Amino acid sequence: MRFLTLFACAAALMVALSAVPANAQLVVDKNRSYFSPDQQFGIGFNTRGGTIQFAMGPAFHLGLNLALDFYKDSAHSNSYYDFGPYAKFLFNGNLVHPYLYAAVGVVQPNTGTANVFLNDSLGKPVEVNLPDPEIRLYFAAGAEHFFNQNVGIYGHVNLVNALLSGGPGKTSTVDFGLQGAAVGVEFFF
Asked: Are 100 and 141 in contact (CB under 8 A)?
């Protein structure tokens, strides 16, 4: 009986000591500055179109590209639409936050033709040839400066442009190097 009482007292002491809150130093995240948006929705405008985004934290943003691009390069036609999600990871920085950017885009080139034949000699009533949408993957590196938690300016350079799917006759390609750039402004609420 005496051993059982001693065991119960020792167990009660262990429970009491383990319930005492531990004091530890506070971890400071260098990305968490006053000027980085945190848990905020935003809209943005850049040289390729617009964006809608959410700052999940001061170092990670998720968004949606809403691009209507009017420039010509080797990968696209004269104009195209590019809609898709993106993720941006911001690194430590005082005045400027460098970041890595990854995006998936459903690209609709504007290179198709629409031919309408009504009662032609072959009996085809209507023929429409539109371009096939492309699925593209982009990787970029850039930097962003936040004036406050609500306004930031940024710029990035696309380093990888990969065609994942482009319809019949198009093979998957991956282009490395300078694949275009974007400069813009973001507003968070």
From this structure: yes
pTM exceeds 0.70:
no
CATH number, domain containing residue 176: 2.40.160.20
pLDDT of residue 146: 92
Q: Stretch 147-170: mean pLDDT, rounded?
A: 85
Tell me the C-alpha distance between 81 and 70, whole Å. Answer: 9
**Tokens found for residue 86:** 């993106």
Token code pair at residue 105: 């885009």
Q: Are 159 and 139 in contact (CB under 8 A)?
A: yes
Residue from 103, 107, 64 nearest 82 by CA: 107
Cα–Cα separations (whole angstroms), residue 79 to 9, 62, 108:
79, 25, 9
Our count of domains for the chain comes to 1
d(CA 20, CA 121): 90
Confidence label for 131 from pLDDT (cuts 50, 70 and 90): low
> How far from each other are the two terminal CA atoms of the chain, in whole angstroms?
67
The range of the structural domain enclosing residue 125 comes to: 38-188
Query: How confident is the model over 49-63, as pLDDT tens digits?
Result: 899 999 998 889 999
